[in-house]
Amino acid sequence: MRIHNFCAGPCTLPLDVLEEVQGELLDFEGSGMSVIEMSHRSAEYEAVHEDALTLFRENAAVPDDFTILFLQGGATLQFAVVPMNLLGEGASAGYVRSGTWGKGALKDAAAWGEAYAAWDGESIAFSRMPSDDELELRPDTRYLHVTSNETIEGIRMSSFPDIDLPLVGDMSSDYLSRPIPWERFDLVYGGAQKNLGPAGLAVMVVRTAALEEMHTDLPSYLRLGAHADKHSLMNTPPMFAIYVTGKVLRWMKERGGVAGMEERAARRSGSVYDAIVGSDGFYRSPVEPAHRSHMNVVFRTPSNELDAAFLAGAEEHGMRNLKGHRSVGGIRASIYNAMTDEGVDSLVGFMAAFRDSAG
Ligand SMILES: Cc1ncc(COP(=O)(O)O)c(C=O)c1O
């Protein structure tokens, strides 16, 4: 029996996709092999690879002057790869320190080059994102790094900064659940393991003109230009993750692409927020309403004991992985693209029943 899996990542994937993968595991399209057993230079795999690249471009409406890269090392490696490639001599990078992940991205950039916090939400417990006029940018800034959705604190940028500098975005936890205003970005990246597919793949999209100005004296894997030149086939790519991601992207396209996913996310997170707001103070969200994530809904009951009872009761009703991140506690429902409406309905129903029984 399948549970409703609210994990923050890796997370639930569409059942249709899993069944298709299961059906093809021993014999992919008459090749007599699975995708994980074939050469990454084979015609069969190259078709899978190109298909996934094309579907990503279509779903995210990536303009022709941007290059899509399939990389490894998760989003974490990109924390380092971005400044290594983009930060030239005498330039600095501004970071929005909006939560755990924005903090991590800044720390890694600062280990390589000149990086600073253009805004810091720590003193307000990362309960909201900044407005454009709160950003403090130095004149030598090459880019401003933003985290579109802070997975742990449950906040999102409801709109991206509209400033005179290129943006770089970590979109790991709301990738392809909202449109990306490409004209503002030089680069976006994210791990696949939430909205796109299995862990092991990171997808980066970079303005091709920016790619041409990047450092060329880096070791080959760290040099983005090397991946671009070889269509992300410079070395053996994470083939299984790319193959499954291609299927998830097709599943997404059939459901209206990013526009469809955006509507789903607003509606489904909205029903959980409504359950919080309508609970007469029993459930509380620490996040300012305009900044509430559409992917990771964080909330609490009146006490740690009730939080624990909530999690145990939810589990008995087939809902797992609702525990908040260990650094913040409480409850977190991650409602990524592939979460079913039934999963969300079960959660909302259980929230009402639990409040009635405990309140
Ligand atoms: C917003 C964000 N950035 C970065 C990461 C780190 O990703 P990875 O584990 O792929 O390195 C995560 C992981 O949850 C995340 O949610």
Query: Main beta sheet, described?
Result: 7 strands, mixed
Beta fraction of the residues? 15-25%
Rg, nearest Å: 21 Å
Which architecture of the largest domain per CATH? 3-Layer(aba) Sandwich
Helix-strand topology string? EHHEHEHEEEEEEEHHHHEHEEH
Strand tally, please? 13
Average pLDDT level: 97
Number of domains: 2
Silhouette? globular
Named once each, the bound ligands are:
pyridoxal-5'-phosphate
| CATH hierarchy class name of the largest domain | Alpha Beta
Compute the separation of the termini in Å.
Answer: 32 Å
Structural class determined from secondary elements: alpha/beta
> Oligomeric form of this entry?
single chain
Q: What is the percent of helical residues?
A: 25-40%
Structural features, described:
By secondary structure, this protein is an alpha/beta fold. It has 2 domains: 4-8 and 257-358, Alpha-Beta Complex (Aspartate Aminotransferase, domain 1), CATH 3.90.1150; 15-254, Aspartate Aminotransferase, domain 2 (3-Layer(aba) Sandwich). The protein is built from 10 helices and 13 strands. It has helices spanning 15-24, 43-60, 74-86, 100-110, 208-212, 224-229, 239-254, 257-277, 304-316, 341-358, and strands at 4-5, 66-71, 92-97, 115-120, 141-147, 149-150, 155-156, 167-170, 185-191, 202-207, 296-299, 319-320, 331-334. The chain has a 7-stranded mixed β-sheet with strand order 2-10-9-8-5-3-4, sandwiched between helices. Strand 6 and strand 7 (155-156) form a beta hairpin. Helix 2 (43-60) packs across helix 7 (239-254), helix 3 (74-86) crosses helix 4 and helix 7 (239-254) packs across helix 8. The two termini are 32 Å apart. The model has no long low-confidence stretch (mean pLDDT 97). Bound molecules: pyridoxal-5'-phosphate (PLP). Residues 9, 74-76, 101, 147, 151, 170, 172-173, 191 line the site of pyridoxal-5'-phosphate. The site of pyridoxal-5'-phosphate has 11 residues, from helix 3.
